[in-house]
TrEMBL record:
Pfam families listed in its UniProt record: ArsP_1 (PF03773)
Membrane topology classification: Multi-pass membrane protein
Primary site of residence: membrane
Annotated localization: Cell membrane
Organism annotation: Klenkia soli
Signal peptide limits: none
The keyword Membrane is assigned to this record: yes
Record-level GO cellular component terms: plasma membrane
Coiled-coil stretches: none
Protein name: Permease
């Protein structure tokens, strides 16, 4: 009976379509097109598009890998009791401490959701866990250094991103303290590694999972940024960029839809040169706080009743924070 069950599981796993399978198929299609349609790749538009795409990906990849490694180390090597000892018991005080912890305990937004769920399950006040969920992928050293590299002529963008993103984390934590309800937040189920697996195996598993997923989002972001720069008529972008409010809202919505990893989004934003620094700041602040993949992760971890309330409010707070900080610093 046990052998039959294992065989059934293996058969189900064998028929599952993975992101790496999709990537291999896409690469094969590109190679085939290169031989079947050689002239198409010589067009100036295609060459310009490929140049932008490769530049975005190559610039962002080292920071993406470093961020994934740090995130995996945090989630697999830091003792669970560390957070309970470090945070104050009062929620109003625990929120800023947890928000500031994102500066020294980095993680991508994909990893921040299960980490926040684990904190809640271990008895940490939800307000502090949510503040950490929002701050860790937005103000950690990898993200700030990547932003500095992406905007070498505008160092104020780094400061603005830090201030605006931390403000979002703190405001949302305090809002949950004031208005949040326990029935909206379902404690996540604990997922243990098999007893035979050590920390090294758990670390490698997290790295492999996060790198494949985050790398896929980076590719999508690079494709979109290249398409916006090459295929969209410059007059359209100039028209949007000329309207300050509309430009902020457009890039904020784009950040939600693209769902780019926070270690790589600065390079995509840097390529959107038609838009103001404030509009691009909105892209950088909204992305790690609320996007389509985060909403799905939050709904699966904490229940959809939480996600449908938390995500829209976070979006509004992030847009307002980016706009105010951009007006102040940029």
């Amino acid at each position: 009976m046990e052998e039959s069950r294992v065989l059934d599981e293996a058969q189900v796993t064998g028929h599952r379509v993975r992101s790496t399978d999709v990537l291999v198929v896409l690469l094969l299609l590109v190679v085939a097109a290169r031989f079947l349609l050689p002239g198409a790749f010589d067009a100036p538009v295609v060459q310009a598009w490929s140049t932008v795409f490769v530049a975005v990906c190559l610039q962002a990849l080292p920071f993406l890998v470093l961020g994934v490694l740090l995130s995996a180390a945090i989630s697999t090597l830091v003792p669970a009791s560390f957070f309970a000892r470090a945070l104050p018991r009062r929620p109003a005080l625990a929120v800023p401490v947890a928000g500031a912890a994102g500066l020294v305990l980095p993680g991508c937004e994909c990893a921040s959701v299960p980490v926040a769920g684990s904190l809640v399950r271990r008895g940490i006040t939800p307000a502090a866990a949510l503040a950490f969920l929002l701050s860790a992928p937005a103000i950690n050293p990898v993200v700030l250094v990547a932003t500095a590299v992406a905007f070498p002529d505008a160092p104020a963008v780094v400061v603005a991103r830090f201030v605006a993103s931390l403000a979002v984390a703190l405001v949302m934590g305090w809002l949950w303290t004031a208005f949040g309800r326990g029935e909206w937040l379902r404690l996540p189920t604990r997922h243990e590694h098999p007893p035979g697996d050590g920390r090294a195996a758990a670390f490698l598993g997290v790295v492999q999972h996060d790198l494949v997923h985050a790398g896929g989002f980076l590719v999508v972001g690079g494709l979109t940024a290249a398409a916006l720069n090459v295929l969209v008529p410059r007059a359209w972008l100039d028209a949007l960029a000329a309207e300050p409010v509309l430009a902020v809202l457009v890039l904020a919505a784009l950040a939600v839809l693209l769902a780019i990893c926070s270690e790589a989004d600065a390079f995509v934003a840097a390529g959107l040169t038609s838009f103001s620094l404030t509009a691009r700041l909105a892209f950088l602040v909204v992305g790690p706080a609320v996007d389509v993949k985060l909403v799905a992760l939050q709904a699966g971890t904490f229940r959809s009743r939480f996600a449908v309330r938390f995500a829209p409010v976070t979006f509004g707070v992030a847009v307002a924070s980016a706009s105010l900080v951009g007006w102040w610093l940029l």
